[in-house]
Amino acid sequence: MDKRTLAWLDLLGRALLWGAVAVLGLAFIASVAIVTSDSIGFFQENVERQGRGIVAIASFGGGLAAAGVMAGLGALVRLKVAERLDATRR
């Protein structure tokens, strides 16, 4: 694999890691917005009052899971690029 491809893959790994941070931040913002909102719009009003916290936790949990997957993939890509670069320097 040439150095240009490795540079692009390293950039992809970095983008995935920073994207994970952005997803985690947006998940937190979304869960706070759900908790503080008057209406979600999916259910009846009395069900919304009781289940708003569960929806907020589910929203944050989904964002946390997505951020974890993105961070893991980014880290794996960067590790493989570093391994290839180390092998080509020898």
Could you explain the architecture of this structure?
This protein has one domain (15-89). The chain is 88% helix and 0% strand. It has two helices and no strands. The longest helix is centred in the C-terminal third of the chain and has 45 residues, at 45-89. It is rod-shaped and about 65 Å long.
Properties at a glance:
single chain, 90 residues, mainly alpha, 88% helix, 0% strand, rod-shaped
Brief write-up:
The protein has 90 residues and is mostly helical. It is built from two helices and no strands. The mean pLDDT is 89.
List the helices and strands and how they pair.
Layout: H1 3-36, H2 45-89
Helix pairs in contact: 1-2
So what's the oligomer here? single chain
Q: Using the alpha-carbon principal axes, give the shape.
A: rod-shaped
The average pLDDT value, as a whole number, equals: 89
| Total tally of structural domains | 1
Q: What is the radius of gyration computed over CA atoms, rounded to a whole number of angstroms?
A: 20 Å
Uncertain regions: pLDDT < 50 for 5+ in a row? Answer: none
